[in-house]
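[audit] Reproducing an earlier prediction to check determinism. Same input, same settings, fresh worker. If the tokens differ from the archived copy the diff job will pick it up downstream; this log only records the rerun itself.
[audit] input (111 residues):
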Amino acid sequence: MNTFFKIEEHQWEELGGGIKRKIVGYTDELMAVHLCFDKGAVGAPHSHEIHDQIGYVVSGSFEAEVDGVKHVLTAGDAYIAPKHFIHGAIALEQDSILLDMFSPAREDFLK
């Protein structure tokens, strides 16, 4: 675990579909992840069995959907997706960035 995160010291991990990520930091109970989307890239609707999630819009804009409700979110806005809630997002601008926070940490991201 690193105590500090300096964005220029970390490379983006390409996930495919016009989305890439950088893990900002984590403990056993909490994780923060930057996700950068190409315009039109889709974070497909899904749910989590054990993770609560908050998606904070750092830059750009998204059409976010949580539990069947859609909103357009811009920088400074966020969505909350408790475990079992279906959620997803579509980037409306090039290089739109979400800061996703998970509790507990996503162990699958660390493999």
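[audit] rerun output stored. Observation attached for the diff report: The two ends are 14 Å apart (CA to CA).
[audit] end
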